[in-house]
Design brief:
Layout (H helix, E strand, L loop, with lengths): L3 E7 L3 E7 L5 E8 L11 E2 L1 H19 L6 E8 L4 E5 L9 E2 L7 H8 L8 H4 L8 H11 L3 H6 L3 E5 H9 L9 E3 H4 L5 E2 L4 E2 L1 H7 L8 E3 L2 E6 L10 E7 H8 L8 E5 L3 E8 L10 E6 L7 E8 L3 H11 L7 H7 L8 E3 L17 E3 L7 H27 L6 E4 L6 H11 L3 E4 L4 H13 L6 H7 L2 E5 L5 H16 L7
Parallel strand pairs: 1-5, 5-14, 9-12, 15-21, 21-22
Antiparallel strand pairs: 1-2, 2-3, 4-7, 6-8, 10-11, 13-14, 15-16, 16-18, 17-18, 19-20, 22-23
Helix pairs in contact: 9-14, 10-12, 11-12, 12-13
């Protein structure tokens, strides 16, 4: 009898394999970073072959740490950085170029051209998304336009496209030797090519953007058996049975199965999702309408999402570019060396602004600088930027949904930072709740896979496993909260329209 469910969590900066027992507790974890490639300002790339190699390594290492064999694993779930686009040759398995990462802004002119007829919301009623550099459909068009011979190879049926989940599943299930070219509804909903109602590719939009349908993977549910691991390694023969984009996986892992339940993940960027049930709610406040998950042949469940490009990445920037800290966790101690932000506000629009503004021509600012400001104030303003951006998204969600959040479930790497979590509760004015297993992205993928193979019976099993670790109660008075937020909003406006 299988004892565990496994997950492969392929993120923006690293790949992680995790193995969980039936109670949802971590049995083993292995994690490896991969290179971040910046060919030009605003351009961000990853090497798909390096990612595939790291994924194979962490899967085998996690199995070794757990002392497990393939027979012990009920299923493998995949979760991934979502809008990052890979195009590869179906005959050789070779990518035609590096993957274009979700943060990349090189498609800005293409996005503007597409918006010339119908504006930023040209496709929103069908796909739930504004025209923005974030999504993978226009990235594919850019590759076809800019890689020699790629358009002709695509027209000939030789090229395949997928977000990272599709690239990994194709390789895991055999690659050029019969690999399955598939994705799930959550990932497909991030391409700008899928009709939210029919859950199928929209031929007209694909044609308008310039992506041949022969390149597109089959769309499946988030929890069903897709095939088995055939790539060698210690998981040989294990069913691959879960596939969710990372933020939807975290929502699943946080057991947000009821309408009105929300979670916020603190990673490279921040992503808040609110379950809206079987209704795809169109946003009027700058949020995304997305598929939250689909279990087997049941109806899909939708969500409103607030996507923030740069949160944890701002701490990494402090570490790698400014060299103010040697390791990301040090930012908390540095921030604690001062009592407040010293009047400094940092708006990290490195890749433009995502929700709720969607301004790809914005760029980051330090606002309110004086000679008084020191390294501690910069560290504090760095953390506060994450909390302020989250407040903006929560306000937009309340406007769109009519739901006022009573509390916020949080997860991801930054939730270990007590100073940030307390300020988050203060600036939201609601309790912030961290679960015992904070890496809910991998957990959600493991749950989806295990439910498809009977290792867990239903969503209730996931609810039963969820447990609170710590809650932060708001302590800031309303006047102070409003003043902080007023200056934040003022600082944000300084980033607008940096480029014409």
């Amino acid at each position: 009898m299988p004892k565990y469910s496994a997950a492969l969590d392929q993120g923006t900066t690293s790949s992680r394999a995790m193995i969980f027992d039936h109670s949802g507790q971590v049995v083993a974890v292995s994690q490896k970073e991969h290179e971040q490639i910046y060919p030009k300002p605003g351009w961000v790339e990853h090497d798909p072959k390096e990612i595939w190699a790291r994924c194979q390594e962490v899967l085998d290492e996690a199995m070794d740490k757990a002392g497990a064999s393939a027979d012990d694993i009920a299923a493998l779930g995949i979760t991934n950085q979502r809008e990052t686009a890979v195009v590869w040759d179906r005959n050789t398995g070779e990518p035609v170029m590096n993957a274009i990462v979700w943060q990349d802004t090189r498609t800005d002119k293409l996005v503007d051209e597409l918006g010339a007829d119908g504006g930023q919301d040209r496709f929103r009623s069908k796909v739930g998304l504004p025209l923005a550099t974030y999504f993978s459909g226009p990235k594919v068009r850019w590759i076809l336009d800019n890689v020699d011979g790629a358009a002709a190879r695509a027209d000939a049926g030789d090229l395949m496209f997928g977000n990272i989940d599709t690239w990994l599943i194709w390789n895991l299930t055999g690659g050029t030797d019969g690999g399955h070219h598939i994705t799930d509804v959550t990932n497909a909903s991030r391409t700008m090519l899928m009709d939210l109602e029919s859950l199928s590719w929209d031929s007209n939009i694909a044609s308008t953007i310039g992506v041949p349908e022969s390149m597109l993977p089959e769309i499946h549910a988030s929890s069903e058996v897709y095939g088995e691991v055939r790539s060698g390694g210690k998981l040989q023969g294990v069913a691959i049975a879960g596939d969710l984009g990372d933020q939807q996986a975290a929502t699943f892992g946080q057991a947000c199965f009821d309408i009105g339940e929300a979670k916020n993940t603190y990673g490279t960027g921040n992503f808040m999702l609110l379950n809206t049930g079987e209704e795809a709610v169109q946003s009027k406040s700058g949020l995304l309408t997305t598929v939250c998950y689909r279990i087997g042949d049941r109806k899909p469940v939708y969500a409103l999402e607030g996507s923030i490009a740069i949160t944890g990445a701002l701490v990494q920037w402090m570490r790698d570019n400014l060299r103010m800290i040697k390791a990301a966790p040090e930012v908390e101690e540095l921030a604690k060396s001062v009592d407040d932000n010293g009047g400094l506000y940092i708006v990290p629009a490195f890749s433009g602004l995502f929700a709720p503004y969607w301004k790809s021509n914005a760029r980051g600012v330090f606002a309110g600088l004086t000679r008084y400001v020191n390294a501690g104030h910069i560290a504090r303003a760095t953390l506060e930027a994450t909390a302020f951006q989250t407040r903006e998204v929560m306000d937009a969600m309340a406007t769109d949904s009519g739901v006022t959040l009573e509390s916020l479930k949080v997860d991801g790497g930054m939730v270990a930072n007590d100073l940030l979590m307390q300020f988050q509760a203060d600036i939201l004015g609601v309790p912030v709740i961290r679960p015992q297993v904070a890496e809910t992205t991998a957990l959600g993928a493991a749950y989806a896979a295990g439910m498809a193979t009977g290792f867990w019976e239903s969503e209730q099993s996931v609810r039963d496993n969820w447990a609170e670790d710590k809650t932060w109660q708001p302590q800031m008075d309303a006047d102070k909260r409003d003043e902080y937020y007023k200056y934040w909003k003022k600082a944000v406006t300084r980033t607008f329209d940096w480029f014409d």
